[in-house]
Amino acid sequence: MFAIARSEMTQLVRNRLVAASSLFIPLAFSAVLIFNRENFGGTPVTAALNRPGFRSVIEARMERDEPEVLSRDARARAADAR
After folding, report:
1. CB-based burial, 41-74: b 16+ in 10 Å, e otherwise
2. Is residue 49 a contact partner of residue 34, using CB atoms and an 8 Å limit?
3. CA pair distance 68, 47, nearest whole angstrom
4. pLDDT, tens only, 13-47
């Protein structure tokens, strides 16, 4: 009877350790990749972490549209000065 109880307790502990490690290990690996991304220079990991989807949409649009907006403003000021 004691052997059965001990094996059941061992199985419960093992199942909980498996569940905890299945959550902890991927989270820890993700944190390592995110917080140490400068150490992975030139790898696909860096490309994935620095892709435009990780930046804000507004920031990407501002970078894209800034030269056009500045040239339009300059033309408007030149027209107003005439």
Report:
1. eeeeeeeeeeeeeeeeeeeeeeeeeeeeeeeeee
2. yes
3. 28
4. 888 888 888 889 999 988 887 887 666 655 666 66
CB 32 within 8 A of CB 38: no
Interatomic CA distance for residues 71 and 82, integer angstroms: 17
Both structure tokens of 7: 């094996």
Confidence of residue 67 (pLDDT cuts 50, 70, 90): confident
Distance CA 32, CA 69 (A): 40
- Please state the domain extents for the chain: 1-50, 57-82
